[in-house]
Fold this sequence. Notes:
By secondary structure, the chain is α+β, with helices and mostly antiparallel strands. It has nine helices and six strands, in the order αααααααββββββαα.
Amino acid sequence: MTELNSIIQDAFNLFAELIALQKSYLSKISLPRPFVTQEEIYQHLSQGETIVSFYLPKIDSHLLSELRQEICCLISKHRPEKAGQIEKINGYLSDYPHIYKDFLQKEQALPIPQGMLSEENELLNFVVYQTMRPFLQKFASQTHSFIQADRWLRDYCPVCGEKPTFSYLRREDGKRVLVCPLCATEWNYRYLVCTWCGNQEHQSLKFFEVIDVTGYEVYVCEKCRGYLKTFNEKKGTNHDDWLLEDIKTLMLDMIAFREGFTRPGGKILQ
């Protein structure tokens, strides 16, 4: 096994367990339905406002804490060299339960806590991000009927505001659908527009594909040097959970990096 294959396999093993854990919590999570009216939601969305910007889901802090601790144990199991940092982060989050509210209100960009190293802060953000995923997926499922996916047409999620890191081309009509990596909301987007910078100059928007990764195209923008992996349902047959697909296709990220493209923010995986 090559070093790259070994890295991909290790990441896949971690995320496969992580996603299974998050899915096991979906049935435990109970969120009160939003008390805002459908008309209010339509009005905010028509102005480009995300749902969490005007209505924060009410989350069970005890269940949130339970999941966070399980995620910390899981990371320590797969990354024993990070166990000391994870213990520190878990302790910090136990003393700072409101960080999840800050996470939503500050568009998933948490400041570096005092006394915490940059690397530890990245790990902290990862733990918070992964802990929030099932709660926001539950919330998104409740608000799904309010969102007109074919009319939103923006480059960020209408529910949580996260930028998409993955998309697919629908088999039946070829339309491009963006996928939120945080709450799993899907919505339509224009085909030849960069999702990172909004560039519409077709001559600077291209894609490449790799014969060993069937069904995938990587759309690159020569203006901002961003890229977006896309599954073409007319070329590929089956796919797994989109986050797992993101892991399984890490080879495409490596090729994009080698060619000088990146995911803005430097995030390969959430």
